[in-house]
Give the backbone structure.
Amino acid sequence: MFHSGGWWSYLKYDEEQDKPTFDRALIKRVLAYASPYRIELALVFLTIILITAVTLLPPLLIRDLIERAIPDENLGRVTVLGLLMVAVPLVNGILGVLQRWASSRAGEGIIFDLRRQLFSHVQGMSMRFFTNTRTGELMSRLNNDVVGAQQAITGTLVTIVSNIFLATFTLAIMLQLEWRLTLMAVVVLPLFVIPSRRVGKALRRVAREQMDRNADMNATMNEALNVSGALLVKLFGRTDDEQNKFEDEAADVRDLGVRRALIGRWFFMALGLVSALGSAAVFWVGAVLVINKELDVGTVVAMSLYLGGLYGSLTGLSNARVELATSLVSFERVFEVVDIPQDIIQSAEAVPLADMQGGISFDNVSFDYAAGGDVGLQSVRRVSMFRPSEKIDEEAELQVSTRRTALEGVSFDVEPGELVALVGPSGAGKTTVTYLVPRLYDTTSGTVRIDGHDVRGIEFESLAGHIGVVTQESYLFHDTIAANLRYAKPEATSAEVEAAARAANIHDFIAALPRGYETRVGERGYRLSGGEKQRVAIARVILKDPRILILDEATSHLDARSESLIQEALDGIMRGRTSLVIAHRLSTILAADRILVLDEGRIVETGTHDELLAIGGLYARLYETQFQATALVPPSGGKYRSP
């Protein structure tokens, strides 16, 4: 609601609190997006001039009708004037279609360019960005804000130019018709300008806040309406709570929309009053001049018709600052994302690894998830929406208080073809180790090497092409099984896809489906069971055929029989390849050549199963409490030993 003191006090508060970035650099940057569409925009401006010229004809035609055609009783002239009156909207309509074509070409092109740049930039962000950003809010930037930014160029800018031409041409014609009445009309111009400054800032602030609240609403919808969120809501019986949360956020968007509309309504009411005063003055003076035989009635009628266009264009120009300020908010929000520095970048000297052997080395590696600062949408807001010492500061303090080093001084070597198991309690840093190898994050200090090469000096494509990862919660796209498998190798033949599926013990299941490999798996693969989804994910990695395998307990969702078969398949593809496995089951640990035991970000023990049991340390305790109960009889010919 408005602050005490009415709407004007609200505007005053806004003027003092909100200092927007509204400078030439921002305008120049915005116009840069229009540069590739110079021809289309030039055509738009040309049609604006022509439409303006045609629009200004009717008052002159009416003046000629009143002052010449009717007094002279010239029916031919009346007919011509009537036909010209019909031609005006026809020509304007044709020019309008041409203008719309050109503006839509430019506008849609700008939307495409912005979305392409945003998507490309976000794709290059590290996982830190995605863990700090809500998907719904990011989608709002990619959709709503991009469209708003496009409107700034093809909508607001075109409107401003149209009003400039209309006001200029109208004033020129009015001065030619009767300069005294024209001066009476323009004497009120300062009253158009005075309110626009404060109203522009107020609407800009409300527009930004409305966009932020709309992004929050989108984020809530995305979290509650995706498959995982909907399942969680139903399982915990929180449907009413989620409904109330959504209604509260939607109500904020509604209330801000009402506030925005009211501020604009007060502004236009003031401008309407100014226009009425100017028109009344012109009518009164014009009437006096007609009565005194100093002016013809036709001229007064023409002047009165031009007044509507003049004041309409002046109102638009007075509102130009308001419109431009609010529409530039969308550009600012787009730039906020584009300007977030990419913390994982490919070095100009990066090289491909043509013949990767698969050796991995961690050299005194430390990593802190918070070391890179807050990399998310909340950390890049250009204009503060809160007063000092409010919400943002509290959130920053909370984030600082929860920081913890994930890895500290970790060093180890994995030989090519070696299978190494990572073991430790929850939060020990096992997953962080696997994130640093494919460079999902960069180390805070220390170096991760593959075949002696710092991963920061290896080309992204080469690094990703030689590393295969199967996480505990595998992700599948809402597409066919075949498409999900070929995500690892787009050029794979049907035979290769089937061979990978057979190796992962999933082919028979797929073949029994009505549409076979063309069956859609649903959002995140939820049409499949956990074990089926995991086997598809394993088949995808088998199809990729990488030199390095990273498995986050890839068989955790499978029953004993399926796990045995999958482990046998993994035994086959791990042979001769470097494998780094986060192990939660004894069967996986027993298959390992070496075990690394992590605790609180450090490697505290290393050795084989028997060696670590003999030490009687953390591994022995974990074995007693966790691993012993998960012992699995190995497949025939397997590597497992009995506990």
